[in-house]
Specification:
Elements lengths: L40 H5 L8 H6 L10 H7 L11
Length: about 90
């Protein structure tokens, strides 16, 4: 892993519910024929850095929370009054 925790993670067989980290290990029962709507419980509800919630949470380290204003709505509608830096 890099200093900012980016990089590749090798998920071990012991970390998934069916014991096999194949290409579709996030699905339950862990194969590519399994339903994409039924996820491995460890990947879906787990706390490991490769789990479903951990990935987007990690991405928030590189974003800035921004509170929308009425000005933003005008810009989204391509209002002529929209100009950079005007709030």
């Amino acid at each position: 892993m890099n200093g900012n925790n980016s990089g590749w993670i090798i998920v071990k067989n012991s970390q998934v519910g069916d014991g096999a980290t194949d290409h579709c290990h996030m699905r339950s029962p862990g194969d590519c024929v399994g339903s994409q709507n039924v996820l491995d419980s460890n990947g879906n509800n787990g706390t490991a850095n490769w789990s479903k919630d951990a990935n987007p949470q990690w991405l928030t380290n590189f974003t800035t929370k921004r509170i929308a204003t009425p000005f933003d709505d005008a810009c989204l509608m391509h209002d002529a009054s929209c100009s950079p830096g005007r709030h």
